[in-house]
Amino acid sequence: MTAIADWTRGGTGIAYQACASCKAAWYFQRGFCPACGNGNPVTRQASGAGTVHARTSVARAPTEELRALAPYLIVLVDADEGFRLMAHGDPALGIGDRVRARFVDLAGKKIPYFERTTR
Ligand SMILES: [Zn+2]
Questions:
Q1: What pLDDT score does 47 carry?
Q2: Alpha-helix runs per DSSP H in the chain
Q3: β-strands 84-89, 109-116: how paired?
Q4: Residue 47: which of 78, 92, 90 has the closest Cα?
Q5: What's the CA-to-centroid distance between 59 and ligand 1, angstroms?
Q6: 24 CA to middle of ligand 1, Å?
Q7: Which percentage of the chain shows pLDDT scores above 90?
Q8: What's the gap in Å between 16 CA and the centre of ligand 1?
Q9: How far is the CA of 38 from the centre of ligand 1 (A)?
Q10: How many CA atoms lie within 13 A of 65 on its CB side?
C-alpha cells in the first residue's frame, strides 16, 4: 500500500476518511463513521479537486503568521470524493467554481490552496 500524503502531517496531499459500511466520507480523522457508527473507517488520498461551496474574505487575521496575508480568502470546498473541507483559496474564486488544491508555504508549513480549474 502506498503512503497517503497528508498536509497536516507534513505531506503535500489531502487525506480523508471513508466508511467501509455506508458511503459516508469526511475530513477530520476519527475512529468511527459519523453517519452509521461503523468502527473501521479507511483513510484515503483525495485528488484535491472539488467545487467551491462557500467563500469568506478574512480582513482581520487571527494569528501573526496570517496577518501578513490579510486580506485573504477562505473557501469551503466540496471535494469530489464527497467530503467537505475549509482551506485558503485564490481571492478571485466564487461559489460553484471548479477548483484544485496546490500546496503553498505558510510559516514553514505546506498548506492546501485552492485555485480555479475549468468552469
Ligand atoms: Zn458509515
A1: 97
A2: 64-67
A3: parallel
A4: 78
A5: 38
A6: 5
A7: 79
A8: 14
A9: 5
A10: 6
